[in-house]
Automatic annotation (TrEMBL):
PROSITE patterns listed in its UniProt record: HTH_LYSR
HTH lysR-type domain: residues covered: 1-58
CDD domains: PBP2_CidR (cd08438)
Pfam families: HTH_1, LysR_substrate
Any Gene Ontology CC annotation: cytosol
Name the record gives this protein: LysR family transcriptional regulator
Family label: Belongs to the LysR transcriptional regulatory family.
Key words of the record: DNA-binding, Transcription, Transcription regulation
GO molecular-function terms, A-Z: DNA binding; DNA-binding transcription factor activity
Amino acid sequence: MDIRHMQYFLEVARHRSFTKAAETLYITQPTISKTIRNMEDEWGVTLFYRQGKKVELTDAGRIMYQQAQQMVEAFQQMSYELEDLMELRRGHLVIGLPPMIGSSFFPVVIGQFHQKYPQITIQLIEDGAKKVEMDVESGLIDIGVAVLPVREELFHYYSFIEENLKLLLHPSHSFAARDSVSLKELAEEPFVLFREDFTLHDRIIRECVQAGFEPKVVYESSQWDLISGMVAANLGIALLPETICQEIDASRVAIVPLDHPSIPWQLGMIWRKDRYMSFAAREWISFTRNLLAEKPESV
């Protein structure tokens, strides 16, 4: 067994799918399936069991998962330190991005970074902000974009956007021509939200409860364009950040400021405090901070 086998195992565990793990690793599914079988034969245990279309870790698999994470992380840190020692200006970064902000900010940022550092490769993992934060904590990804605040005892971060959520309505809605709408006025409205693995899902529900009502959630999605499309189809209302609202066709939906209270949305680049930072990671943080940051970062 070598470190590559451990990486294969971790990807299957992360995606709960041999097919998705193979796509992420750019290898064939039979290759990854054979690797897992060989690991199981070598150790005399079953690492995964199938549950519908997904696979789940067995008890032995969970033990292997904990140890494999530590082994892969130790190997990566050794590689980073050796590269830095040899002053090689190359490397590999795994960066987590919430889907709703990736297209708004990062194609240009990544393109400019690649021009400056052509030998640094980047792997993007798209997940909700809550999952991104968990994966930075566990070491599955190097750096992530998360909704602030995060736990300051675990993470360094810098903020690069701070704005409020806005209300999306069908143009025929009685609130569509208003200058602003208070949150409590939405008590009887059907809500279209992001899924539970998105920080905004919990944030919106919490704010509604504080305003005196439990929101009536009729649809959930991981895509902001689908959410705005549902509003345009008059299936409900939505609350989205200003940056996302700028991407939406204003002829299809009405966008109205929300007040009493407004709901803030602050994004930051986060990384673990207690983990070795490779040359590639340090340069990404420095480069993007200069390009994006609105405020001094917390370190």
